[in-house]
Design goal:
Elements lengths: L19 H5 L20 H4 L10 H4 L4 H6 L4 E9 L9 E9 L9 E6 L10 H10 L6 H12 E6 L12 E3 L15 H19 L9 H15 L4 E6 L1 H12 L4 E7 L14 H20 L1 H4 L4 H9 L3 H8 L10 H20 L5 H10 L6 H20 L10 E3 L5 E3 L1 H14 L5 H14 L34 E5 L7 H10 L4 E5 L13 H13 L6 E4 L11
Parallel strand pairs: 3-4, 3-6, 6-7, 7-10, 10-11, 11-12
Antiparallel strand pairs: 1-2, 2-4, 5-9, 8-9
Helix pairs in contact: 5-6, 6-20, 8-9, 10-12, 10-14, 14-16, 15-16
């Protein structure tokens, strides 16, 4: 989830727009319904009776960083296209194609079914999820119990990833922007009326761009959940086994509400609050990220004051807040609050920012080139190896300052076509469409500006982004989500880290309270977002036992988190 756009996941694959949707609309649908009790009465036989044509996967669709994984399991990895209705309420209006990737069970004779993955977002392309997890499981160490169990999961389950509708290469939701975006600075550190107004106008422009694309109306969680049920039916499985991370927990919950009798083993990893609106609850990220800063990052720096010389946690906090706005923006807008293995780097970047501030104050006329030269002779930390690491991060901050990026334009979710027109890519557009279409949002622009003001006051290093709310300008009726009572007794397993910055523990606890049949494993002293497989026996053995034998842990159980970091600068 990107720092400047709370709740927005950062997918790495974006397809090409074109006539694919128009061509798909020429295909009519017919047949019989798949589930009279939980689905509207429309014909789906054409979809449920299709045969998947599994072929070798195209490496360019998986991503260059995943090609090695593709080569590691060549005989078991195949890709296919699943045909689904554009609109489940009117299936004759058109067809979409959903990309699939399967890592087949190594021992098909003892196959227990398929496990479908969703990595989150919304807007994350999940095609490679199966490849990543299939590789992790297949190559887990046989020297310990949890590794042996992960290998057994690889042997007995097909692992399936898919590109949710709106993502992938076949029918991407790409929205053409009329005009340009206004220059927008950080909503945390520039609270001027002009900047806030620019942010609101940009949010309105984003919403209007996608409302002009007819595909947007069909991008929502209910449709994706029904796509997953078609996948289950085409695979020939009586029930859906599922692992969802972050937004994937919301998707899994919606699927379960639609098809409670179809739920097999379901793991909700890093949970949203399924009792609240989707779009409204992302404001909790500000609270959770500030908590990571105050309760984990700053105390870590204090514990290593001998190597970092940053003083006490309170002294460091005050020094960071006193930084000039431009430097605070460069520091905190690229702070990772979802990967606790990067704790050391986060604290070293704080040291770099403070050292750079000292250089800028002592050399007020220095340009970026001069600052880069000054960094080479500046003592950032008393330990030589730490000083080298901090100096490198100071150079990165100087580059960020030189970029002075418009916060409304991010290179990974926007592109410029040959004529210079802006286009919003699926990483952003699917996120926006799902959040706006699913359950709408509370209040109007003035309401969210008030929330933003409150968040900045409470969380001065990370709060305020709720001033920019595209869903306020999205006049589309939200979906009707089935009641939670339909799944209250389902034996769903949840996994959560205590300090999760993207989906706070409070959200998971609210979901657990609403699901009496669910069980939750809480990983302590940890802010990793997305845990399984975690790499400890306490976590992985309990999850594997659930999928392999259906064994559930107690209602509330806990596991020790992995050590957050070693010696600073090591």
């Amino acid at each position: 989830m990107a720092r400047n756009l709370p709740g927005f996941s950062r997918a790495r694959w974006a397809g090409l727009a074109g006539g694919a949707l128009v061509c798909g609309m020429l295909v009519a649908c017919g047949g019989t319904e798949v589930d009279a009790q939980h689905s509207p009465p429309y014909p789906l036989a054409e979809f449920t009776q299709q045969t998947l044509d599994w072929q070798a996967c195209a490496p360019e669709r998986i991503g260059q960083d995943q090609e090695a994984l593709l080569a590691a399991l060549p005989d078991r990895t195949r890709c296919a296209l699943l045909r689904v209705p554009l609109d489940y309420d009117h299936p004759a209006e058109g067809v979409l194609q959903i990309e699939l990737l399967r890592v087949a069970a190594a021992q098909p004779q003892s196959r227990l079914g398929a496990i479908v993955f969703n990595p989150g977002g919304p807007g994350e392309d999940g095609l490679a999820s199966a490849l990543v997890h299939g590789m992790q499981w297949a190559l887990a160490s046989p020297e310990d119990v949890s590794g042996t169990q992960l290998r057994e999961m690889s042997q007995r389950f097909d692992v399936i990833g898919f590109s949710p509708r709106g993502t992938g290469a076949n029918h991407p939701l790409i929205c053409d922007v009329p005009g340009t975006f206004e220059d927008q600075d950080s909503l945390t550190f520039d609270r001027s009326a002009e900047n806030l107004q620019r942010a609101q106008r940009n949010a309105q422009r984003m919403a209007r761009a996608c409302l002009d694309n007819p595909l947007s109306a069909h991008i929502h969680t209910e449709a994706t959940a029904r796509d997953m049920d078609l996948l289950r039916a085409v695979l020939g499985d009586a029930q859906l086994n599922y692992i969802g991370y972050s937004y994937g927990t919301w998707l899994g919950s919606w699927y379960a509400r639609l098809f409670p009798q179809r739920v097999g083993r379901m793991l909700l990893d890093s949970s949203l609050d399924v009792t609240q609106r989707l779009d409204d609850q992302f404001m909790l990220q500000d609270m959770a990220n500030q908590r990571i800063l105050d309760e984990i990052m700053l105390p870590f720096a204090e514990r290593h004051r001998d190597t970092l010389a940053l003083g006490s946690a309170s002294e460091l906090r005050a020094a960071l807040l006193a930084l000039p706005s431009s430097l605070k923006e460069a520091l905190f807008d690229d702070m990772d609050f979802m990967d606790s293995s990067l704790l050391e780097r986060a604290v070293l970047r704080m040291s770099a920012a403070l050292g750079l501030d000292a250089l800028m104050r002592s050399h007020p006329d220095a340009d970026n080139d001069a600052l880069l030269a000054l960094v080479d002779s500046h003592l950032f930390a008393p330990v030589p190896r730490v000083n080298v690491a901090v100096a490198r991060l100071a150079r990165e901050l100087i580059e960020a300052l030189a970029g002075d990026e418009n916060q409304a334009v991010k290179a990974d979710w926007i592109e410029t076509d040959a004529q210079g027109a802006l286009r919003l890519l699926p990483e952003f557009t699917v996120n926006m469409a799902v959040r706006c279409n699913d359950t709408g949002t509370a209040g109007d622009a003035a309401y969210w500006l008030g929330v933003s003001n409150d968040q900045v006051a409470r969380y001065p290093m990370v709060g305020g982004d709720t001033a920019s709310k595209p869903c306020v300008y999205w006049p589309v009726s939200s979906r009707t989500i089935p009641p939670l009572s339909t799944i209250a007794g389902l034996p769903i397993l949840m996994l959560q880290s205590r300090y999760d910055g993207a989906t706070p523990v409070e959200s998971a606890q609210a979901t657990l309270a609403a699901l009496p049949g669910a069980r939750m494993i809480l990983v302590e002293n940890e802010y990793q977002h997305g845990l399984f497989p975690y790499g400890t026996e306490c976590v992985d053995t309990q999850v594997a036992n659930y999928f392999l034998q259906g064994t559930l842990p107690p209602r509330n159980s806990s596991c020790a988190g992995k050590a957050l970091a070693g010696k600073a600068g090591a």
